[in-house]
Specification:
Low-confidence stretches: 200-208
Protein name: DAGKc domain-containing protein
Structural class: alpha+beta
Largest sheet: 12 strands, mixed
Family: Belongs to the diacylglycerol/lipid kinase family.
Cofactor: Mg(2+)
Distance between the termini: 18 Å
Organism: Pseudolysinimonas kribbensis
CATH class of one domain: Mainly Beta
Keywords: ATP-binding, Kinase, Lipid biosynthesis, Lipid metabolism, Nucleotide-binding, Phospholipid biosynthesis, Phospholipid metabolism, Transferase
Strand content: 35-45%
Radius of gyration: 18 Å
Helix content: 25-40%
Shape: globular
Length: 260
Amino acid sequence: MLAAGGDGTVRAVAEALRGSDVAIALLPAGTGNLLARNLDMILTHLADSVDLAFGGTDRRIDMGVIELDRPDGSAEEHAFLVMAGFGLDAKMIANARPELKKRVGWLAYVDAIARALRDTDRVRMRVRVDGGEERTASVHTLIAGNCGALPGNVLLLPDAEIDDGLFDVVTLRPEGLLGWVQIWGKITWENGVLRRGGSVGRKLAGMAREVRALRYYRARELDVRLERPEEFELDGDPFGEVIGFRLRVDPGSLIVRVPA
């Protein structure tokens, strides 16, 4: 089945195909096209993407399944492929101006990020990883991802793999402007440059000082309760406010047509 559009469109089609033997072929036509980017697919030539749909090979990848708890007590379940979370990314997506996205594509999110960063409030959460002990934390942003690369050579989740049966999770806890600068430096320089610079670059990245405002961990299941409602996003689409969510990996549940 061919899915023409961005990550939100692909997510909707993949949700229907999850667990089936029908492969999905991507015709990237959205703002970020993160799934296609992380699978090293063609982004700019529609004819080549169509050729890939009929001449590529099949690859099984993981999907995420998430149950969102709404402030009114209702709950709903969705599947996703790339990233899910609250905080900076959700506010960025909510703040993105549609007319700017049509003109400049993913660069519209630069403007949206600038406005989202003005919100420095943290939210207190209770989190349980893989059914373990419940812990509390105060964070600005939490993102769980099946893929790690963003547009502009930004590697948000450097160890994320799309078929390893795990989510990579990052939390951001900046304290003022310096905290944001440290986070941006870690993501763009260490993750985006050093880790892609061969064995020497990876060695230098391993020697880099940890940034307290940034924490990574991995999980198969994640249960989060929030002290107040927060905007939430799935694969680049706004999904309204949540007061909590339960997330799990569904390993190898989607077949994607990729380059041979």
